[in-house]
Design brief:
Helix 7 links the parallel strand 7 and strand 8. The chain has one domain: Metal-dependent hydrolases (TIM Barrel), CATH 3.20.20.140. Helix 6 runs parallel beside helix 7 and helix 8 crosses helix 10. By secondary structure, it is α/β, with parallel strands linked by helices. Strands 1, 2, 3, 4, 5, 6 and 10 form a seven-stranded parallel β-sheet that branches. Strands 7-8-9 form a three-stranded parallel β-sheet.
């Protein structure tokens, strides 16, 4: 069974790569930028190239979907570069193709805040996609870079689905009717995403789970099956949002970047001032099998489980990573 995780942010070590391999993971979309500018992002890409040299027996870059199958055959993990914000392109449309040529295949238009392209999910008002945003959408469509709206506000997301010539992704979020985190998505968004051929990756980040770290596997898998009814079984996958091996200062960087001098606690609560505990059924990449078993226990057919665990993402990437 092909296993693709559409979002992780991990402080990688050899042991963590081996753990993912032991969990049967074939490809991971890795975050290489939050608030970084162009130069910072290029430095992060340089760091990843060194990782590919240091661990060439276990990881390899993914530039086209078939690279994932090559990684599977070789017993390696395919690594997909992605940005959780548009900051690496700064205000220069040319940087979309330049960074695509450096291996970047996925970019969010916003990360919580208003960006030069669209509105983030933490803003009080949602003015939608900007003039620059419309041009970036066209250029991302042209070169083959996936548009990700995981941290975007509702109107901006719906507008992007309509504007984009290619299906978009929400790589890591859950339905808001299941848990009302600001980042989780309404039925209106999920329906539009499914109808347009887009993809949703279900998140196991505890702040976005019903009952947080105490969310049960049965509840999580039931939510997946309910969302399949809403969106269609071909439009859902996993985007775990797994974060490992980081200190608190990294969590503060993710949330606060350079735009504020005080900690931003995310969902508006100082109780979120630390990394959350993972649910016991998904503590790391070694636990993907638990999700497949949980879906089976809920009565999902094996062919549909295979779609959710990676088949759908592969099909989506196959249609998305090549230029128009």
């Amino acid at each position: 069974m092909l296993i693709i995780d559409a979002l992780q942010y991990v402080n990688w070590t050899r042991a963590l790569f081996e753990e993912a391999k032991a969990g049967g993971v074939n490809a991971i979309h890795v975050t290489i930028a939050y608030w970084e500018n162009t130069r910072d992002a290029l430095e992060n890409i340089g760091d990843w190239r060194q990782r590919f040299r240091d661990h060439e027996d276990i990881i390899m870059p993914v530039h086209k979907a078939s690279d994932i199958l090559d990684a599977q055959k070789l017993g390696k993990i395919g690594i997909i570069f992605g940005f959780q914000n548009c900051s690496p392109i700064e205000d220069d449309l040319r940087m979309v193709e330049t960074l695509y040529d450096q291996g970047v295949r996925i970019m969010q238009l916003t990360y919580n805040n208003q960006s030069l392209l669209a509105t983030g999910c933490y803003e009080e008002g949602d003015s939608g996609v900007t003039r620059f945003g419309r041009e970036v959408i066209k250029e991302m469509n042209r070169v083959g870079m996936v548009i990700d709206m995981s941290h975007s506000a509702e109107h901006s997301t719906l507008q992007t689905i309509e504007l984009s010539q290619r299906p978009i992704a929400i790589t890591h979020a859950n339905p808001s009717r299941w848990h009302e985190a600001l980042r989780n998505k309404s039925d209106d968004v999920l329906k539009a995403l499914g109808q347009s051929g887009g993809m949703l990756g279900f998140s196991m980040y505890p702040f976005h789970l019903n009952d947080g770290p105490d969310c049960s596997l049965d509840d999580f898998c039931g939510m997946i099956m309910d969302t399949a009814e809403l969106m269609g079984i071909d439009n859902i996958g996993i985007g775990s949002d797994l974060c490992q091996n980081w200190g608190y200062e990294t969590l503060e960087w993710m949330r606060s970047g350079k735009w504020t001098f005080k900690p931003d606690y995310g969902e508006g609560s100082a109780s979120n001032a630390d990394w959350p505990r993972q649910p016991d059924w998904f503590e790391s990449s070694k636990d993907f099998g638990n999700i497949a078993e949980g879906l089976s226990d809920k009565g999902m057919a094996q062919r549909d489980i295979e779609k959710v665990m990676g088949g759908n993402w592969y099909r989506f990437f196959e249609a998305s990573f090549e230029p128009l």
